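Continuing the batch. This is chain 6 of the set; chains 1 through 5 are on the previous pages. Same settings as before, nothing changed between runs. Recording input and output for traceability.
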Amino acid sequence: MKRALVILVMLLLLAGLVRWCNGTRSVSYGPGVMAPDEPVQVNLRGASTFIHEDFFLTPVAEFEVHARVLSRRDYTRDSGADLAPVDLALGWGRMSDESVYGQLTIRQLSRFYIWRTRQFPIPRREIEVSSANMHMIPASREIERDMKRVRKGDLVRFTGKLVNAEGTGGFRWTTSTTRTDTGNGACELVFVEAFEITKPDGR
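Output for chain 6:
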C-alpha cells in the first residue's frame, strides 16, 4: 500500500513538472512580423453597465486584437484577481517579430509590463506604441482555461470590450483607451468574449 502511494505521488509530481515545463517553454516561429496590424478599437457611448463576478463593468469600446504574446502572468492574490486572473503582455507590428523582442528583457510584475534592453533593436517609441500589457477578464471558464494555456511567443486573437470596473469597498479599475500611453494607467482592461491561439498562417 505504501509503495503504491509513493508511486502515485511521484506520478503526480511528474505530471505537474511536465505541465510546468510546457507552460514555461516559449514558442518560436522564426524571424519575421507575425501580427502586422495594431488592435482595432471602436469607441462606445452610453453602453449599459453589467455585472460580472460581482463587479460592475461599463463598456467603453469594442476591441479586437491579433498579437504576439511577449509574456503571461497569472494573478491569484491581488484585489483584481477574481476579475482579471491573467495579464498578457502583447506585441504587434515589429514587436511581433521574435528577432526584435528577443533582444529585450521582458517581465511582468504587480500588473505592470517591464522591458529593458542594452541596445534598441527598433526605436524606443515604436516599442512603446507597438506593445501593451492587458488585464484579461474572461467571459467564461473555458476562455480562462485557454488563456492559461498561452506561452510566450504564441499568437493570439481575441475580441471583446474595453471596460471600466467597480467593486465593493471602493474598488475601481479604469482601462486605457489608447495604445500611445505609458506608465501607470496605460494598461487595457479587456472583457474577453472570444479567444483563440492561432498560427502564423492564421489557422
